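thought: fold this chain, then report.
action: predict
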Amino acid sequence: MKLGSEEIFYINAFNSISGVNAKDVIVQDNNIIFLVKSGDVGKAIGKSASNIKTLRNRLKKNVEIFGHCEKFSEFVKKALKEVKVKKVEVTEKDGKKKAVVLLEEGERTALFGNMGRIKKIKEIAKRSYGIEEVRIK
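observation:
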């Protein structure tokens, strides 16, 4: 993973405001996504989301924070906290990893109202976990 000068600038701004070291940053259009250790998410957000508000004002972009977990299945369950995840299966074929996220019955419609979050999760899966494709069923 290589970071450009823009990404390094955003990580430094995040670190100085929140006091938390970001593992990665993803810039998508008007969104900045920071990936931090799972245990540091609360500190990164700040009391009453003060750190996020400060970052939004200074960077003039929407800011989101995701917690990084060792296992991709744990990451997905935390990232999709608004829906019930039944199971996460990661398979590898021909050197490419693919993941299938199985949701509980009736949860799919609730999730697809937020396609932007799914795109962000797929990008994090690719960059941090080496998973080329994520399918949600």
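thought: worth noting. Strands lie at 24-28, 31-37, 62-68, 85-93, 96-103, 131-136.
final: tokens above.
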